[in-house]
Amino acid sequence: MATTTERGLTDRDIVDSTQQLESNIRDSEALLGSLVMDATAQQAALKLSRMPPQGSTSRAPEPPLGARVGARLGGPTGTKPHSTETVYPGFAGHIILALNDSQFRVTPVDELMSQYGRAQGGGSCEGDFGMGLIARWRATRKPCCLARSGSDSSLECHLVKQTKHHGHGDQLVLGTNVRVDYKDWATKAVTDKVLKDYIGTKHSDAAYVHMSKGALAATCETDPSEWKKAAFPGWNEDWFKSLDTGRAEDTDLGCDHWEEQPTLLLQRDTFANFFHDSEDFFNTFIALAVLKWPTDDLQVIITDLYPKGPFWDMWSRVFAGRRAPLTAWDLKTKYGKQSRVCYRKLALGIYGPASPITVASWRTPCSRTPLVRAYSDYVVRGLGLEGRTHYAQPSGPPRVVTITYMARRASSQWPERRFCDSKQSFFKCEDWMHLDKRSLGRMIRNDKQVVAALKELETRRWTNGAQVTFRDVDFNLLSFEEQIAVDITTDVMVGPHGAGLMHNIFMPDRGVLVELHIDNSGSNQHFHNLARWQGRKYLTQNMGNPINTNELKRLVASAVESIDINTY
Questions:
Q1: Cα–Cα distance between 340 and 427 in angstroms, integer?
Q2: Which residues pair with 517 in a beta bridge?
Q3: What is the distance between the alpha carbons of residues 59 and 161, in angstroms, rounded to a whole number?
Q4: pLDDT (tens digit, 9 = 90+) per residue, 242-275?
Q5: Which residues neighbour 560 within 8 Å (Cβ) at sequence distance 6 or greater?
Q6: Which of 279, 461, 425, 415 is nearest to 352 (CA)?
Q7: Which residues, in sequence order, are CB contacts of 384 under 8 Å at separation 6+?
Q8: What is the rounded distance in angstroms from the CA atom of residue 460 to the CA atom of residue 556?
Q9: Mean pLDDT across the stretch 213-219?
Q10: How high does pLDDT run on average in the chain?
Q11: Residue 221: which pLDDT band, with cuts at 50, 70 and 90?
Q12: CB-CB neighbours of 548 under 10 Å
């Protein structure tokens, strides 16, 4: 039975009013974020328009976008046909792809993201997936450990409550003049236990070091209302527990080394699942935007014990400027027993599963979001693949429509064995020799018949004038760069529900994602959302397994016919 307060309110009334209040607060935060975003976008556009070309120290206006693109791709810059915007019109909506190396590295991420407009769809879309999210996260900044008298050591917390996300919020911490002691990573007994637990639990225990007290140190006084366990989800909690602020009179951190460059420290959710790895990639992009950091002098430190894995190019190329990322093994090797390292600016990253791409598991109304559109261009540009996109073709949009079947096959070894490294990793190969080919769920039982049926579409005549080419691709057999190179030249991506469909966000604007929901996988809306957040068409159908190839051909044919081949 519901209880009633002195004012006649029932428990249900209180819950409803509380939920309404929380909703109103989120709406207000989103509106604030939108207002801040408008001002940020105007300032960023002005700054980018004044940015000098690579190698220049003057403040002269930048040459036209088409001229910059033509120069970087090897064409002449002062005469036709490469001197005008019309040669590469696709770049007009993809400014990150048009930047030279210096501009790409020195421009803060928030300024790049602000060039991609506003999220469409109304409601909380801008506050959840646009510059409004960045502004909202930044606006939560509060001192959570205040510097003592005579000390300049402090911690600032950025705790944001994402729409419909459980818990108290998702945290980003920025430390100024703080110390990290890496002795736990250099202690064999500690790292051996982590690996033993990982193996013993059949990989359900993450390969994380649960660091001892003092792993994080600062000479400041914590604010209990901000520095509290509830504000640190997942592995963030280990850093919360490890903080040592010393005695009230302490002002010396006792450093063995000082690092001056801005540093982002994080632990990966995993190392060989493209969707879950992308949680950390997106969170890194968001953190850099919130902190207004470029990647030019950025140092990324990854403290989990996993091997580098198949997507290491994201850390070593996309998010790396002049400094290579450091793994936990690198830390042990670099610092050894002199493990107390102090940082002028150290950010503790956002917990992987708190990424907006994971939090929003329901079907949202949002589309063309700056978060996804800017991020996808950022990855393509970071890998140096911009010149191979549809947008950079001098002859205009290609008439050929490429269908890529994203095969889901048990074609590779378990990633622990495939990426083990006995010399420069905690994952020693001798621990994984018992693992062979990895079986996958949701594999299509009539895979060969599906390939043959989709291949038949190459001979069909299309009312939109398209010329169709089909390719059967097993991404497990490609390098990461090769995978993205496939994505950016794919117009229709077809595949069963699975992490590989994360690749759809790198397709050209006219691309269509066809997701096949087999084996009861229809409840998850992540890939619908990612396709729409990018701004592309999305088609799906619940299918049996084996798949009815005639139904599949009809579905994919509708995707081909929906493409305007005169657009990118």
A1: 25
A2: 542
A3: 40
A4: 999 998 777 789 999 999 999 999 999 999 999 9
A5: 401, 403, 457, 462, 464, 466, 468, 491, 492, 512
A6: 279
A7: 317
A8: 12
A9: 96
A10: 87
A11: very high
A12: 16
